[in-house]
Amino acid sequence: xxxxxxxxxxxxxxxxxxxxxxxxxxxxxxxxxxxxxxxxxxxxxxxxxxxxxxxxxxxxxxxxxxxxxxxxxxxxxxxxxxxxxxxxxxxxxxxxxxxxxxxxxxxxxxxxxxxxxxxxxxxxxxxxxxxxxxxxxxxxxxxxxxxxxxxxxxxxxxxxxxxxxxxxxxxxxxxxxxxxxxxxxxxxxxxxxxxxxxxxxxxxxxxxxxxxxxxxxxxxxxxxxxxxxxxxxxxxxxxxxxxxxxxxxxxxxxxxxxxxxxxxxxxxxxxxxxxxxxxxxxxxxxxxxxxxxxxxxxxxxxxxxxxxxxxxx
Length: 313
Hints:
With 313 residues, the protein is of the alpha/beta class. The protein has one domain (32-311): Rossmann fold, CATH 3.40.50. It is built from 9 helices and 8 strands. It has helices at 3-21, 47-58, 70-81, 97-111, 136-154, 187-194, 201-217, 230-250, 282-294; strands at 38-41, 62-67, 88-91, 116-119, 165-170, 259-264, 304-306, 309-311. Strand 6 (259-264), helix 9 and strand 7 form a beta-alpha-beta unit. Helix 4 (97-111) packs parallel to helix 5. The protein starts with a helix and ends with a strand. Its EC number is 1.1.1.-.
């Protein structure tokens, strides 16, 4: 059996384990949440985001499903109501600061804040073997800067808690720093981004600005960036780095004010984002995000997960 076959066998075995774990109910001892627990999910109108909303609501959490398009969001709310789940909808464009501010005021007035933030909203314009950077600015702006804006906006609203508030960033293995494939070829930059103690917003922003400048002047292909879905991969690399940076910044908060921030890769999921060409179902893709959001006794922060296991950045 070759390496590819062995890897496929391991992946299928782990997915079988995940499918089993998904059927195991939480015990009373594990259930720290209640109907008073508020979760906000961005990009919740379809795909993985919609499934994360469904699973959290099924566990008894109050879920606020958000989307840029009100029509699509309300249609999703209607769909979930037809399977017996009651969720709340609010319009939210993570690239529009006025939209974020309106959401902040509404959230404070109606719920007093939130306990869980799932940053799922994102875009990808490449499918199959495509690797166009035509939409690179939009990809980076949405996937990284939009996620960053939401984290900055929601942190002051995260409710004090014995178990800690949670931020879950939906990311991708394509953004790994030190993967065998698809990594940045600049060893010095990889080392800088790997060092969590010296990691900074400036460093992340500079790397993204350099890439986008090269996109604009047509030299990006020789810039040493990831070779597969370059703009998407780099945007998720930035999300991963920012996850680690925020975990470090939030680590010294007082007890009962702790905020745990992690990211995860849902795998190659059959959604519109992949042209429905993935290997995993949306249920499987959402599972680790929901697991992280509901993890009991959670001192875990600044980590990267896939299939309920920690993986390397």
